[in-house]
Each structure stands twice: as C-alpha cells, then as structure tokens.
Design a protein that fits this description.
Layout lengths: L3 E6 L6 H13 L2 E7 L10 H12 L5 E6 L3 H8 L3 E6 L2 H17 L4 E6 L9 H9 L10 H12 L1
Parallel strand pairs: 1-2, 1-4, 2-3, 4-5
Length: 160
C-alpha cells in the first residue's frame, strides 16, 4: 500500500489549480507531502519562505497533507521520505509530453517510484502561476484563479 505521495512544484504563487490537486491527492493517499522545489535558474516572485507560508495556509483543511521544501532531485527527496508516488497535474495535452518524459526519467533513476497523473478539473485547466503573475503585473483581478490570501500577497508584490 502507498502511504506517502509527493506533489512537487514551485507554487509561485499557489493557485486554485494547485489546491484542487492537493485536495484530490489528499483523498487518494494517506499522507501527501506538498514539496516546494528550489529552482536556482528561475527568478521567483515569492521567496521560498513566502511560498511555504501560502501553501501551509491553503493546505490547512487537509490533516494528511504537510508542506516541505527540497533542493536537488525529486527522486532523491522522495527516497529520503519513503514516498512511493509522485503526483503530477495535467492541464492540457501539451503538458502530457513533458510530464511523461520527466516520469520516464524518474522511473529510470528510481524504478520503485511511480508517477500518478491527475488531469486538472476543466475550470482550472487554463490556470497557471505564470498566468496569475502576468495578470497581476498589469493590475488585473486574479481572484478567480487563486485563494484570497494569495491574491492579496500577489497584489502587494506588484504594488511596490
């Protein structure tokens, strides 16, 4: 039986699409670790600490979900946690090719890890963190795409 699943991402910022995947993974697995990955080549809008705070707040309703961060390969982090499954969301068909390539590489490095793909709910299929950032950058309303606290933080970032 799978006891621990990992849902990894940058969550910069967290969106309702992310929250949907957390909720669904929490219903499927006894323990879900939402893992914020460090991407040294990406310029993040929010610091790792800020993203962690936001994810902890939106994951609070799910007692079997914890938020953590990691640096390095996801498969190594999963091994350290004793995880057996990596959860990945698919918004569109274009995501599938990329995600499948990553899943194959992960399986090649750690055959004991499986990747589970969850298609995003239709109403969240077009939402991405980069879309939220771009709309907010131009003063647009992102309240349909992210939880209220996240929207306030995004708005504050671009007000500076």
């Amino acid at each position: 039986m799978v006891h621990t699943a990992i849902y990894a991402g940058s969550f910069d910022p967290p969106t309702y699409g992310h929250l949907d995947l957390v909720e669904r993974a929490a219903a499927l697995f006894p323990r879900v670790v939402v893992a914020l990955g460090a991407h040294p080549t990406k310029q993040a809008l929010f610091s790792a600490a800020e993203r962690r705070e936001m994810m902890q707040a939106i994951c609070k309703p799910f007692p079997n979900v914890e938020v953590d961060s990691f640096d390095g390969l996801l498969v190594d982090y999963a091994t350290r946690l004793g995880a057996r499954v990596i959860v990945r969301g698919l918004r569109a068909g274009t995501d599938f090719e990329y995600e499948l390539q990553i899943a194959h590489a992960n399986a090649d490095m750690k055959p004991e890890l499986d990747t589970v793909f969850l298609p995003t709910r239709t109403n969240y299929g077009f939402i991405s963190a980069s879309l939220v950032r771009e709309i907010a950058r131009h003063g647009g309303d992102v309240s349909r795409y992210a939880p209220p606290d996240v929207c306030e933080r995004v708005k504050a970032k671009f007000a500076k």
